[in-house]
Amino acid sequence: MKPKILFVEDDIVLRNNYVEILELYNFTVIPAEDGQEAYEILQHENVDVIVSDIRMPRMNGLAFLKTVRSESKWEDLPFILLSAHAENVDYENGIKSGANDYLTKPIRGKDLVNAIQNVLP
Amino acid sequence: MESRKNPSSESIRLSVLKELRILDTPPEQDFDDIVTLASQITGASIALVSLMDTDRQWFKAKIGIDFCEVSKNDSFCQYLVREEKTINVVDATQDERFSNNPFVVGPPYVRFYTGVPIASVDGLILGSVCVLDPSPIVLSEKQVKSLEILARQAESLINKKSALIKSESILSTYVNNTLDSIILIDLDKNIIDCNKVFIERVRKILNKELIKGDTVYNYTPLSIHPIIDESIQKAFSGQEVKLEIFIPFPNFPNWYKTLLIPIKNSYEEITGVVITLTNITEQKEYEKQLQSLNRELSFHQTNSPLAVIKWDKGLTVCSWSEQAENIFGWSADEVVGKSINKLNMIFEKDIESVLKNSELMLSGKISRLTSKNRNYTKSGEVIYCNWHNSILIDESGDIISILSLVENITEVITLTKDLESKKSNYEALINSSDEMVWSIDDQYNFLTLNQATTRQSEIIFGKKDIKEGEQFFDMPMPDCRKNFFKDLFDRVLLGEGISTDLPSFNVNDNFNNLLFDAHLNPIVKKGKIVGVAVSLRNITEKRAAELKLLESEANLKAIFETTDTGYILINNELRVVAFNKVASDISGQNFFNADKIPEIDTPILDYFPEERREILKNTMLQVLNGRRVEYEISFPQPNGTTNWYFVRLYPIQPESKIKYGLVMTLSDISRQKLSEKELEASKERFTLAVRGSSDGIWDWDIARNAIYFSPRFREMLGFSPEVFNEETYINSSGFNYIFDSTHEDDLESLIFAINEHFEYKKPFQHECRFKTKKGDYPWFLIRGQATWDSNQKPVRMAGSLTDITQRKLAEEKLRQSEKMFSDLAKNAPGVVFQLCAEPDGSSYFSYISDKGKGILDIPINDKNWQLNNRIPPKDIATFNHSISKAFSTKSDWNYEGEIILPNGTRMWFQGLASPIVKSNKLIYNGIALDITERKIAEEDRKNLRKLELSLAKEKEINILKSRFISLTSHEFRTPITAIVSSTDLLGIYAEHIPDPVLQQKTNDHINKIIVQTDRLTGMLEDILMLEKNVEGKLKVTPQPVNINKFLIDLNNQYYTDRRDKRKLKMYLGNEYREIITDPSLLIHIVSNLVNNAFKYSLGAAEPELTLSYQPDTFSISIKDYGIGIPLADQEHLFETFFRANNVMNIEGTGLGLAITKEFTEKLGGNISFTSQQDKGSIFVIQFPYRI
User: For this UniProt entry, which segments traverse the membrane (chain B) (predicted)?
Assistant: First the structure.
């Protein structure tokens, strides 16, 4: 079974690129435009890891993370935040909210794959 | 044709028809209905309403045919016009009139024809209602009747139209030929229609074209809109509105008679208003002139007891009132146009003085003159007249005529004389009569008898020498007398007191020739009536005199009642003897005290207010001594008008030494006064009234030594106008009244001034203090002008009195403030000055304080000194502008600038001055102060402020820059990420390139992209970091740090896996110290320095890191063996974006060391280095153990 990744990113170029990279690295990837869509997908899809951008319309990454963590069935679901902000404050915020990792853009494909593999159960 | 009426009647018929204007008009439903009905009633296929024109029959309505007219000769109806009655033809072929008709022989082959004539109101046949059909039809009587009814219907329709057209044509004739403007407006007040006159008026007056449909307000001045609105609304409510309105069109202000008539439709609803405007300006002008003419003389000409005579400048009679005819006998026709010399109406001895007076008046020296003259009437009789003469002045102030008001006083004088003689007789009789006093007891016995009784006892009682104790009824009196007395005695004994005349008994004794009046009173002793006291006065003579007097009084009365003058006869005891109705009316109205009406034999003084009685009594006593007194008196009325009376007090028999009494006459001269006021209005404009009501007016008749004071004058001296005593008019002291009130310090100069005026005609204008009723002495300005007679003797002087207390006070205040000013000026700092502005704009210093002169080094008394010379040239324009601006606006002057002192140094000064206007000059009083210190302080402050401003600006720019940097460094990440991820994908796909060379080349380029994007990211991070620090957003979070472990972790993380295989040599020692610092910043500092050490020593020995501890600090030194830093660049090394000139080929941003230094300092440390080019560098960072 390939690990199933929910990849949440509002920028279409980035989303398509990383989906392509991850699939090349042999993951099953479900793309989502924003937290709202991702949350809806989560209702009927079981995923192994969530990778989510932070700044997004409708529901942003942090809000999505909090929503996910608020449900007990997902409290241990691996969650990686991707951000354009490279500051400590953002990092700490993300980890505090329950993210398993916090990556700063630009992120190399290899580094993202490493991070995902680190959080996979 | 043979029976045709004469051509003239045909032409009348045609003209009537044409006037209807019905020919060739479009079809109308009313007429169409008629033909439809006609066809239906008769069953004929053709029905027509036709009119017979000159040579055609025209159809107003038709059914059954297509054409609308036929030639007259072919028409059936031509016969109707001739025969003037219904024509009924069953079969036209059988009728010789129609059998050859083309419509019978040809289509539509008419057989049946019935025509009913339509007549005009005058009975002329205009046309017909007719029915035709190709088949013969026999009409019943009913059908014919119906047809006739229809014809009448058509007739009335046509004639109604005719009436309408006629009235319309009359209307339009009027509308277009009138001079009035006629406007029709609708309910929205828009002009629907108007006549040509109005269009032309609009063109001429408003200089624009009338637009139908416009609101009427567009053609009227704004000021009259409310009245127009009101009038139109009234008209809308159904009223006809008439008004005269003044419309102030620019250049064409005119009066208009305006008529607004509502127009109604047939349902009686108002649909609009017709406005007619008639220009009545000329009429108004005429009315106005007439009015003013009428006003001039109106009061004289109606009901006036005074004759009115108007003379021109040549003393020719211009007008002569009815009353003048009554007095003098000549009618206006006989005298108008005649010169005074030819009239023969002036008593010879008076001619000279009359002419002299006229001359005085015409010269303008006297405007009013009252004289008493003897005159001749037409019949040669001598009469006494009072002449009140005034001059009339035209608009330009020229004398145009003399107006004389003449009163005939002959009767008064004559009657007065008559009365005196009667009066003296009767007084004598009264004084010489004796009184009989006697009494009886209750038994009618004589108790007492006085001498007069004894002496005359025979007359009363019929017996001489009556003694006390004799029985009254034993006297030889006639029984009737005894009964008379008994009756009286008995009544008195019962307690009554009786006064009665004794009847004249018709018996043969002397008694009935004498008259007595009797007074009977009870004699009371110890509460009981014990007798009767009787006094008898022989009033025979008195009665006779009284009867005579009554007789003369009756005459007097008859005369008195015909005059308008009130007369009161007063005897030498100052009691009222007689008065006429006018006097009682006047007194009832307002003349005397309270509402008392005089009664005979009461003291005249009772009718005057108590406070006046003493003065009036003295006056009257003087009159009794032969003086004559005249004065005018005014009584303000509650309705705002003033009643004026001319009062005369004349002695009776002035030549005699016996004081008989006096006559008081009262003439109502209110109207005369009013008229005089009007007549003098123009004159007063030029003289005293110019000064308005704030001045008091006085008028001193020097000849009579009487002085008149206007109400305002009296008010000024503290008497309210209402309670003025008329006695003041007749103040015998004349001008002494004023002298008496003059302040003793001013008296001498006042008298001197008047004498100067009298003697040398020097203008009389004097300031002095007069005592007011309050007892104080306010300041007044008294002015006057005398008139002189031919002997240069002053006869009259009139003038004004102005209260100048305020001015005097102001002068005093001014003096005080001037004193204050000079005191201030002496002691004030700086330069105190007074600057005079000349009307031509130039100015000079009229005053500069001594201190100021010292400061400015001005020669004393140099009047031409100008400040301009001391103003620095660059400021001159500004300085002059500030002064001229203040001058032109008469506003305060405020100027700050430099001045060059005599020693050449410059001083800042502030000049402040306020204007006053003094005798047409603009004067500025002000001060100039040394403000050099303030200016310096201000300059400093200004500079500081500038600095602050520029700092703030810089800060603002910095914030903008920070925001920009923060935004860009974040935003750039997304595209960089896209590049990075795409490059990764390229790298993955490159693995599948079969050609190894190509694959290698591709990978090389992919690596280059990766390296460059890394570099870009690094730069972004550096910039962001630096900016955060600059912005102060970089927070230092101290925490305990194990420095050894920190450095080892750092090394493991970054420097153990370098591509060139070099390592970092670490010399950490064995010592361990607790350090409190911010590790996240420290990691930046150390890694940056280590990165540099690697970067700038490629190919050289490995860099070294040494940790060492000092007593208060610890230091980390990083040493490399690389290219070193050129000496020249060393001092700029930590500057942002600075890069040494030997590293241009090595990547870098020039930010790293700047950030390192910033962060080091943030952590309380410092950074230093030593370097030698091509040998290497050592960087040392040193920190406290605890921040």
Answer: none
Number of domains in chain A: 1
Which tens digit of pLDDT belongs to each residue from B408-427?
777 666 655 555 545 444 33
Higher pLDDT, B638 or B404: B404
Residue B1062 predicted with pLDDT over 70: yes
Structure tokens at B714: 């009296």
Contact B87, B110 (CB under 8 A): no
Of the partner residues A24, A106, A109, the one whose CB lies closest to the CB of residue B976 = A106
Interchain contact A105–B (C-beta under 8 A): yes
What gap in Å lies between CA B157 and CA B146, rounded to an integer? 17
Residue A56: inside a domain: yes
Burial of residue B812 (CB within 10 Å: 0-12, 13-18, 19+) is exposed
Q: Which token pair is B1020?
A: 């972004």
Check: pTM over 0.90? Answer yes or no.
no
Long-range contacts of B240-247 (CB under 8 A, 24+ apart): B244/B280, B244/B284, B247/B220, B247/B221
Percent of chain A at pLDDT > 90 equals 39
> Given CB atoms, is B1031 within the 8 Å cutoff of chain A?
no
The DSSP secondary-structure symbol of B590 reads I
Nearest-CB residue to B1080 (from A88, A106, A107): A88
* Interface residue A107 vs chain B (CB under 8 A): yes
Check CB contact under 8 Å for B978 and A20: no
Does B1021 contact A21 at a Cβ distance shorter than 8 Å?
no
Residue B1136 is classified by DSSP as T
Q: What is the mean pLDDT of chain B?
A: 77
User: Which residues are paired to B320 by β-bridges?
Assistant: B309
Q: For residues A7 and A20, is the Cβ–Cβ distance under 8 A?
A: no
Q: Which residues 6+ apart lie within 8 Å of B38 measured at CB?
A: B44, B47, B129, B130, B131, B147, B150
**Could you give the 3-state DSSP secondary structure of residue B1123?**
coil
Asked if the C-beta of B1068 comes within 8 angstroms of chain A's C-beta atoms, the answer is: no
Which residues, 6+ apart, have CB-to-CB distance to B1139 below 8 Å? B1148, B1150
- pLDDT category at B724 given cuts 50, 70, 90 is very low
CA distance B938 to chain A (A): 48
Is A114 contained in some domain? no
Chain A positions in Cβ-Cβ contact with residue B1021 (cut-off 8 Å): 86
pLDDT at B637 over 70: no
What was the ipTM of the complex prediction? 0.88
Contact B1017 A106 (CB under 8 A): yes
User: What's the CA gap between B1004 and B1002, in Å, rounded?
Assistant: 5
Shortest distance between the Cα of A83 and any Cα of chain B, in A, equals 9
Which residues neighbour B993 within 8 Å (Cβ) at sequence distance 6 or greater? Answer: B999, B1002
Domain region containing A29:
4-60+68-106
Residue B104: exposed, middle, or buried by beta-carbon count in 10 A (0-12, 13-18, 19+)? buried
Q: Tens of pLDDT along B154-166?
A: 888 887 776 666 6
CA distances from B882 to A4, B276, B875, B894, B912 (A): 88, 62, 11, 8, 11
> Best mutation site among B967, B973, B982, B984 for testing chain A: the one with the most A CBs within 10 Å?
B984
- Give the CATH number, domain containing residue A102: 3.40.50.2300
Distance from CA of B993 to the nearest CA of A (A): 16
Whether the pLDDT of residue B732 is over 60: the answer is no
Chain B residues whose CB is inside 8 A of the A11 CB are 974, 978
CB contact under 8 A, A84 and B970: yes
Specify if A115 maps to a domain.
no
Average pLDDT over residues B640-655: 71
Cβ–Cβ below 8 Å for A24 and B973: no
Q: Across the interface, which of B973, B976, B981 has its CB nearest the CB of A21?
A: B981
Q: Which residues contact A15 (CB under 8 A, 6 or more apart)?
A: A7, A9, A31, A33
Determine, yes or no, domain membership for A112.
Answer: no
